[in-house]
User: What shape does this take?
Amino acid sequence: MSVTPEQVRSALAKVMSPRGQPLTEAGVLSEIVIHDGKVFFSINVDAADAKAWEMVRAQAEAAVRALPGATSAMIALTAERKGGAPSPTSTPAARRGVQPASAHRHPAQGTHGSPMSRQAPIPGVAAIVAVASGKGGVGKSTTALNLALGLRDLGLRVGILDADIYGPSVPKLTGIHDKPELNDAKKMIPISRFGLSVMSIGFLVEEETPMIWRGPMVMSAITQMLRDVAWGTLDIMIVDMPPGTGDAQLTLAQQVPLQGAVIVSTPQDLALIDARRGLAMFKRVNVPVLGIVENMSYFQCPHCGTRSDIFGHGGARHEAERLGVPFLGEIPLHMDIRATSDSGKPVVESEPDGPHAAIYRGIAKAVKDGLGLAASVA
Ligand SMILES: Nc1ncnc2c1ncn2[C@@H]1O[C@H](COP(=O)(O)OP(=O)(O)OP(=O)(O)O)[C@@H](O)[C@H]1O
Ligand SMILES: [Mg+2]
Assistant: This one.
């Protein structure tokens, strides 16, 4: 028999909030969602108190996991600033001399009120960068993975998180079919492939299972993939985002402690309108856009190598100039890029000396420079 919300609530009533009242009376719990014995909910607290609540979150998770009929618990701590985002120095913690989470940002970040100030960074991970687009099918996942490999080639320790919970494609692109194992601290160990640390919701669910997610579940799943994974020490984590700029994506952009975003667009006008939407989304949550990549920029004949600008090439470069964001590079529409991705060995890995790998490495260099990262691997 699956556990019920009432049973979960009575277990949570025994967990005390930092102010000493039962968790169920602290006014911080979201709706409790239970699916096949898997329990999901979030604890919504003021950003200034987030540290104190992390222990409560862990206790709540342990209490729920201990319930008979609960097969797993995903509990997200969502920290929001109350009263319209006060400046860091006006929070009670800052007045007491406690540094806000934003003080731990990467030095390249400056202090422009990014959502990093709302949540703690992942220990050991120096920078997290989202690869996003306004619409689907423009080549985000292909770009994300080849960009990750390009960053690896520049001497960085790189992780890739497939946050596309609706259609995870990283398992296919990397040819990974294993399930992650747990370490002694019960954290999932990312799967190591091509020198990258790889994590995808696709490793945890059957590929054919249709996934129907509700808002809090999406956030819990993402939070778990960020926090309950033993990521180790990484110079950069690339996040392959789900397509679009709806609420789920906005929440994700808000919740994942991002240092920057890379927008992938195709040259067609329509995609550019969508790309503008993507830019606007990151602007709303104060995540700096590192630049735009034009994918499927021109058609390159696999036989003779001749280039044809079948889509009216160059739109993304102009748009980037107009919007004042860097243009990171253009990737041709080429059979090899598609075929290597489909076979689970992306082009930067399978043809490291070829022209496509050089393009991705160029984009990787621009991203690395944009973040001010130094190589840590010889
Ligand atoms: N430059 C390219 N040349 C040829 N094929 C490409 C290129 N980029 C991507 N593709 C192919 O286009 C298809 C869509 O790419 P991909 O899955 O990376 O897009 P996506 O934006 O992540 O899609 P979704 O929105 O569904 O997540 C894939 O079959 C991929 O192999
Ligand atoms: Mg994708």
Observations:
- The pocket of adenosine-5'-triphosphate (ligand 1) is lined by residues 133, 136-142, 164, 167, 169, 243, 295-296, 331, 333-334, 337-338, 341-342 (CB under 6 Å).
- Residues 81-117 have pLDDT under 50 and may be disordered.
